[in-house]
Amino acid sequence: MATDVKVPALGESITEGTLAQWLKKAGDAVKADEPIASLETDKVTVEVPSPVAGVLSETVAKEGDTVEVGSVIARIDEGATAKAPAEKAVEATAATVPKAAETPAPREEKVEPEAEADPDHITTLSPAVRRAVLEHHLDPTTIAGTGKDGRITKDDVLAAAKAKKAEAPAAPAAPPPAAPLPPAAKPAVPSGERKEERVKMSRLRLTVAKRLKEAQNTAAMLTTFNDVDMSAVMDARSRYKDLFEKKHGIRLGFMSFFVKAVALAIRDVPAVNASLEGDEIVYRDYLDVSIAVSAPKGLVVPVLRNAQAMSFADIEKTIADFGKRAKEGTLGIDDMTGGTFTISNGGVFGSLLSTPILNPPQSGVLGMHRIEERPVALDGQVVIRPMMYLALSYDHRLVDGREAVTFLVRVKEAIEDPTRLLIDL
To answer: Which end of the chain is less packed: N or C, by CB atoms within 10 Å?
Structure first.
């Protein structure tokens, strides 16, 4: 009995995906719940399991096809068993050997005058041999076959092509070189070979492009900047990193400081954590931070839920888990939905300054950048400090300039004096 394999539910508001890869092929035995294909959605890659045990009898969709939720992509013969490789080989051999009744009667050979290659004769060759003959512009009647019953093999064609090339007459002597042109008159000649490659955009990349352009077209986006002295955070990290790792089993990074600083700043400026829905503003008493993480197929933004209540260790462990799962491609749809604010750290790639783009429907995104030693004025003296530029992009329809600047100043104050994070200032 054949059982249909259908595209499973892919998450809220996701109605279709792209068949990225078949993990099994027709004729393979499959177990119940064993993945047989992978689907690429707007956000993650999802595996499609087999609903029953049996043999994959048919694949309805091809790799690269767009498939809708609930559509049939394959069929499983429930309870069937896969054929052994030896049985498949016997069947394949039987299919290629002509039956005795189909064997043509021998024809009386006629002596014909030597002529050019006959296209009709070429069509009697095997596909591989015929293709090789046409590629090398050879006359198959002049090639001695070494295969069964004198048939021409691909190796025979390649050998004939090599012999033909060796017998080709020597190229005529090159004409004497022309007088060199003046330097200004020499034509520009490109060095090396110029190549182009066309690659279809992945569904993730298409969705990212669509959403970013939507943010530019919809939101009144503006960016404000500030810089922050990282000395205090770097000193605290250097002083406690060994004890922190020994106690919690995770390294103390900079991201946890910034998440806590954002949670503190949002208490004073709740509009940065709000969103617009129609003609209403939705304010929240919780903070779900979308953390931009680099993955092999592009940037993904898993969400730290209730970040305002998380400890430094909880934040670092969760972010480390997100990074690992992003590389493995095992992040789920639920991991990347529902964020209220985004933090993007371009500094890990060496970025000095940028203007991050909003992640709709959020109204704020904080951009971190690389730490760079720069001269700054401190108490009337010029000193060298490890500085970082911060950028806050916000939706000006919802957040006023004063609120955006205040928010960024609160983050700066918390980073430059981490004690504020402990005593809630």
So the answer is: N
Whether pTM > 0.90 for this model: the answer is no
Q: Report the 10 Å Cβ neighbour count for 145.
A: 15
400 given a catalytic annotation: yes
Nearest CA to 238 out of 64, 49, 386, 30 is that of 386
Q: Active-site residue among 120, 400, 417, 424? A: 400
Question: Rounded to whole angstroms, how far apart are CA atoms 374 and 388?
Answer: 9
Is 148 in the same domain as 68? no
Q: Are 277 and 270 in contact (CB under 8 A)?
A: no
Q: What is the pLDDT of residues 66-83, one digit of tens each?
A: 888 888 888 888 876 765
396 is catalytic: yes
Catalytic residue among 33, 268, 396, 417: 396
Q: Are residues 154 and 39 in the same domain?
A: no
Residues 74 and 146 in one domain: no
Domain that holds residue 158: 120-162
- pLDDT tens-digit profile of 130-156? 777 777 777 777 887 777 667 787 778
Q: Indicate which CATH number applies to the domain containing 151.
A: 4.10.320.10
**What is the full DSSP assignment across 223-253?**
EEEEEEE-HHHHHHHHHHHHHHHHHHSS---
Length of the chain: 425
- Total number of domains in the chain: 3
Q: Same domain, yes or no, for 130 and 74?
A: no
